Amino acid sequence: MENAASLPPLTTGQKFKTVALESFDPVGFAFIGVESGINQAYDTNPAYGQGLMGYSKRYAIPFADSAIGSFMTGAVFPALLRQDPRYFQMGTGKFLHRAGYAAMRVLVTRSDSGKTQFNFSEFLGNGVAAGISNVYHPGPRTLESNVDVCVTQTVLDAFGYELKEFWPDIHRLLKRGNHIPI
Predict the structure, then answer these.
(1) Measured between alpha carbons, how far apart are the two ends of the chain, in Å?
(2) 3: left (phi over 0), alpha (psi -120 to 50) or beta
(3) Residue 106 contacts residue 158 (beta carbons within 8 Å)
(4) Which tens digits make up the pLDDT trace of 107-137?
């Protein structure tokens, strides 16, 4: 979000709507499809099997992990804790400074009142999502596998923040052939 100072807080309904739009975005479907195809080719987690059924499992499980994690970190916990799930872009400055700012958004967020605070929604949301994943992930679930799902979702969120920070620059670069300031 640009011009963050002038934006009003999101209502609970707006938080859920925003996450729903992001969770069912065609780019996300395509990304998970490519990831699932690679995992199918390498037979990642052989318990899924091969063929259409194996691919379907390799697609459905990461999609569920992503959607549940997004709803927990972007709607449920932000609504309960009155945190703003939006990414507020820095937008200017040196590359490393902006990259550091984006990476820190996993740890730091804004409250609905605009104050900076620890991003409880990120960690509680991904933790609960990892617990829910025990229902549909194959094999015995352990604390280690739950931590793995939680860490994976948190790392993906950090990567998403980097994309949100730099996408306007990348878009301009692709459109005009300009360079990104370093």
Answers:
(1) 22
(2) left
(3) yes
(4) 999 999 999 999 999 999 999 999 998 898 8
Task: Indicate the pTM of the whole model.
Answer: 0.84
What tens digit of pLDDT does each residue of 130-172 get? Answer: 999 889 888 778 888 888 888 988 998 999 999 999 988 888 8
